[in-house]
Specification:
The mean pLDDT is 93. The chain is globular, with a radius of gyration of 19 Å. Helix 1 links the parallel strand 2 and strand 3. The longest helix has 15 residues. The two termini are 29 Å apart. The protein is of the alpha/beta class. The chain has 2 domains: 194 residues, Alpha-Beta Complex (2-enoyl-CoA Hydratase, Chain A, domain 1); 48 residues. The strands form 2 sheets. A 6-stranded mixed sheet has the order 1-2-3-4-6-9, sandwiched between helices. 46% of the residues lie in helices and 15% in strands.
Length: 257
């Protein structure tokens, strides 16, 4: 698929943004290809986790300004038409998504990295908001995602001052799970993705959904919502297997059902 490479590692699907000459800068074609690749990859029940990364020296350098005309005169409508489907596909993916950030994640590329579930970063990785440097506001979900990941004050600091965030600092403030040497990035991301793929993926994705809902719910409403979802998911094959394995004192074998 143009712009996005697909590969498999057992139960893990690997998606690679493949426009290295532009540091994988966003275009309607690239984001369209990503949305289609997520859908295609996850149609296969054998895929139980995804890894998203970038080819070359960077993860994603943000919007490709040369391609902005393709969005049309109504920029908001163009972004929602061409870009939102890729972000939605990652955020609502039926399997867990690990993002392996190599090199820079700038502007919208920073937003894209946050659309997954867990970020692993190469030691050379860096994150920068960029927007206020050119008198713009953050977009592509940054103002929703970043405060929820690292808190309001730190998010505003990054957005207002445009100071690059090193991989190590990103780990310290909770943006990324782990920082590894560049040549070990994909290996570490795959180890994590395999671990997720071996888990009860239906329950893992339901957990993600509960966390998303909690941002807008009262304590009491979320308390009830958890139990309602629990009552449904406890009937799943994985939940039954999990209980049986616990009683029988053995390791559970989950299937995602």
């Amino acid at each position: 698929m143009a712009g996005v490479k697909q590969a498999r590692d057992g139960a893990v699907g690997i998606l690679t943004l493949d426009e290295p000459a532009s540091l994988n800068a966003m275009t309607p074609d690239l984001l369209g290809a990503l949305a289609a690749a997520v859908a295609e990859m996850t149609q296969d029940d054998g895929v139980r986790a995804l890894v998203l990364t970038g080819a070359g020296r960077g993860f994603c350098s943000g919007q490709n300004l040369k391609a902005s005309e393709a969005l049309g005169e109504d920029i908001a409508a163009g972004v929602m038409r061409f870009y939102w489907p890729a972000f939605k596909a990652l955020r609502e993916c039926r399997v867990p998504v690990v993002v392996a950030v190599n090199g820079v994640a700038a502007g919208g590329g920073f937003s894209l990295a946050m659309a997954g579930d867990i970020i692993v970063a190469a030691r050379s990785a860096s994150f920068i908001q960029v927007f206020s440097r050119i008198a713009l506001v953050p977009d592509l979900g940054s103002t929703w995602l970043l405060p929820r990941l690292i808190g309001r004050q730190r998010a505003l600091e990054l957005m207002l001052l445009n100071e690059p965030l090193t991989a190590e600092r990103a780990r310290e403030i909770g943006l990324v799970r782990e920082v590894v040497d560049d040549d070990k990035l994909m290996g570490e991301a795959l180890v994590l993705a395999r671990r997720l793929a071996e888990g009860p993926t239906r329950a893992l994705v339901a957990t993600r959904a509960l966390v998303e809902e909690s941002e807008h719910a009262t304590y009491e409403a979320q308390f009830r919502r958890e139990i309602e979802l629990q009552a449904t998911i406890r009937k799943s094959a994985d939940a039954i297997e999990g209980r049986n394995a616990f009683v029988e004192k053995r390791k559970a074998t989950f299937t995602g059902r």
